Amino acid sequence: MLFIIFASNLFIFFVNQVSAFDIETEGHIITGSQYIFNSPPLHKDFDSSLELHFVTKGSFLKTSEWALDYAFETNGILNNGPSEQSNLSNDNTINILRSWLNLSKGPIDFRGGRQDILFGSGVIFRPLGFFDTLNISGVLPEAVGVDSFRATWFQSDTSLIEAWLVPAKIDSALISGIRGEMLLGSTEIGTVFQYHPKSNLVNFLSYEQDMVQIGYYFKGENKFGFWNETRLDIEMQTTSPMKFDTVLGIDYTFDIGEGLHVLAEYFLTTQQKEFTVSDLKGHKTYQQIGFAIDQPIGIDIKWQVFSMLDLRDSSFQINPQIELSVTDTLFLYFYGKIGSEIKGTKQNGRLYQRTNKFNGTESSVGLILAKFL
Fold it and tell me: Is 349 helix (H, G, I), strand (E, B) or coil?
């Protein structure tokens, strides 16, 4: 009898302290095709794709002190066209975008698995996007996380310290970093330090180089938004050559129609002579500017234009887009890409190239249908 009473009390205590396993699911289906103007010889004129995207997330365990959360995000894509012919994309592929467990107690989080390690203030140009794979000009851009362990300490509602370890996939080498972030008045500021040994992480920034990376960022608002994001790379050579990247940005919403939002960024990169050159054209210094303009029309239509211009080689990209809301969950996107270079020299640039193999900078026009589940 005493055992039954004890067991009953223990069960009631456990139920009061621990919530049941829960799960949430979401996803979308995307299909579309774009016509490629002047597609390279022996390449198809239409680039088409079908994507199934699925996300599941929730909690394994929750008590008054502890929480064990999880997330799993994957997509399957079928491609047909010049991007598949040129190996820019596979004809069919299944990707695990994110898959992690997060253990938290009070202000401290520990997360392991494939996850995002993203921060900074840049929108178009992202010098501190060490593990950023997002195509900002895409119609529905998606990013792939990086396999890593991350620990975050939320010191207050407006400040945090975060550290991470990422396997470099070369022997037992680890990429390690730490950053701090806080709100100072109305301005968000942050600093970051990372040691990056040579790695086999081919999808990420400067994976073949051994270097120390230091950076800062801030973002504020005073009638208009303003921000700066800067990174200094110090390569581990005898002379310790350096590379400097910085972005300055502003944005403002004009009282035109239902709000005309305009954003502009200026990007500068320069490096010392001994620093390993990774630029397409072998330049050690160049500058680019980017613009993004968007405006809603009623509740069902939104248009935007994204553009980039390289000030050194005069190549540019312009990406217009119209989003039409058919229902609450069904959207239609009309989009285009205009790529060229201003001087008319027909030389390949950083933002537009003419090659006998499809490279993704060609001019195009397309249509995408997206159904969110």
Answer: coil
pTM given for the model: 0.89
363, 369 in Cβ contact below 8 A?
no
C-alpha distance from residue 338 to each of 137, 289, 301, 360 (Å): 12, 16, 22, 11
Q: Along the chain (373 residues), what's the average pLDDT of each consecutive run of 10 residues?
A: 39 47 92 94 94 95 91 95 90 93 96 95 94 83 92 96 96 95 95 95 85 97 94 94 97 95 98 90 94 95 96 94 96 95 81 89 95 94
Rounded distance, CA 227 to CA 128, Å? Answer: 13
Strand, helix or coil for residue 359: coil
**Nearest CA-CA partner of 289 in 319, 263, 309, 317:** 309
CA dist 61 and 42 (Å) reads 55
CA-to-CA separations, 297 to 260, 293, 316, 369, in angstroms, rounded: 10, 13, 28, 19
Beta carbons within 8 Å of 97's beta carbon, 6+ residues apart = 73, 74, 75, 114, 142, 143, 144, 145
Token pair for residue 167? Answer: 């396997």
Measured between alpha carbons, how far apart are the two ends of the chain, in Å? Answer: 52
In DSSP terms, which residues pair with 353 in a beta bridge?
A: none
Say if residues 174 and 64 touch (Cβ distance below 8 Å): no
Contact assessment for residue 355 and residue 40, using Cβ atoms and an 8 Å cutoff:
yes
In three-state secondary structure terms, 16 is helix
- Tens digit of pLDDT for each residue in 31-58? 999 999 989 999 999 999 999 999 999 9
d(C-alpha 303, C-alpha 285), whole Å: 34
List own/partner pairs for 252-256 with CB under 8 A and 24 or more apart: 252/223, 252/224, 252/225, 256/295
- The H helix count followed by the E strand count for the chain is 2, 18
Give which of 38, 31, 48, 134 is closest to 83, Cα–Cα.
48
**Coil, strand or helix at 247:** strand
Strand partners of residue 369: 31, 332
